[in-house]
Amino acid sequence: MPKVPAYTLAWSSTTQAYTLSESRDSRPLNIVPDSPDWFVWLDHVSSFTFSGPAGHYTARKETRQRGDQYWYAYLAVGDKRSKTYLGKTSTLTLARLEQASQLLQARSAQRDADMASRQQRPALGELTLAPQLSTRPAVISTLVQEAARPTEQQRDLLLNTKLYIPRPRQQLVSRSHLTERLSQAMEHALILISAPAGFGKTHELRNEVVEELMLVGEAKGAQSWMSSPRERAKTA
Question: Sheet containing 47-51: which strands, arranged edge to edge?
Fold first, then answer.
């Protein structure tokens, strides 16, 4: 089980500012976030607790195979744990820490909403059976034609499903090395992800990158999502 971080960076509603202190006795440290001393301090610690207006989480520094070190944010709610990429020490600003807090809280709220939706589904015994249809061929033919003809509302609904970010799937393996590569590639104008079907391209984008882009994009108005049909993708 991970150790409790020795330091806490917490927002104070009284002073309207963040204070860095030792977790054990709340003794404040003379370090201002985003200052040069802040980044020097980050080089010498491996974890700390972040507590902001949107929520809290644990920030941990992890070393990868090539020796590079990256920060990740972890949020545990009950037996569920969420993780998101923070970046290298040089990019660990207050703005980045707050964005991660909003992202983790949004994931937790979405997971709670999905669970509540599943619990509200009627049991098999509660389903109401439709009245028995006439067996006359002419009636059946008419009903089939009417059912097959999409209404304007159905067409709009089908279009909307292509423009919304897919919901995360349950029980999928997290691949942090892919997350790192995607996050580091955000500085480029175009990213091409190529892999066979079923390799998790959509999952990786949705869970680790797109949500963060959408949070940042709310202010810039420059982010969007579109799922392309297979027949159009071949000609794209």
Answer: 17-22, 7-12, 47-51, 56-63, 69-77, 80-87
In this structure, the strands spanning 17-22 and 56-63 are unpaired
Identity of residue 31: I
The tokens of 10 are what? 């917490």
Q: What is the pLDDT of residues 215-230, one digit of tens each?
A: 444 444 445 666 665 5
Stated length of the chain: 236
pLDDT in tens, 122-164: 554 555 555 554 445 555 555 455 555 556 655 665 555 565 5
- Secondary structure of residue 66 in the 3-state scheme: coil
Question: What is the enclosing helix (H) or strand (E) of 80?
Answer: strand 80-87
DSSP type of residue 188: S
- Grouping H, G, I as helix, E, B as strand and the rest as coil, residue 213 is helix
The first and second tokens of residue 215, run together, are 């949070």
- Bridge partners, residue 58, by sequence: 49, 74
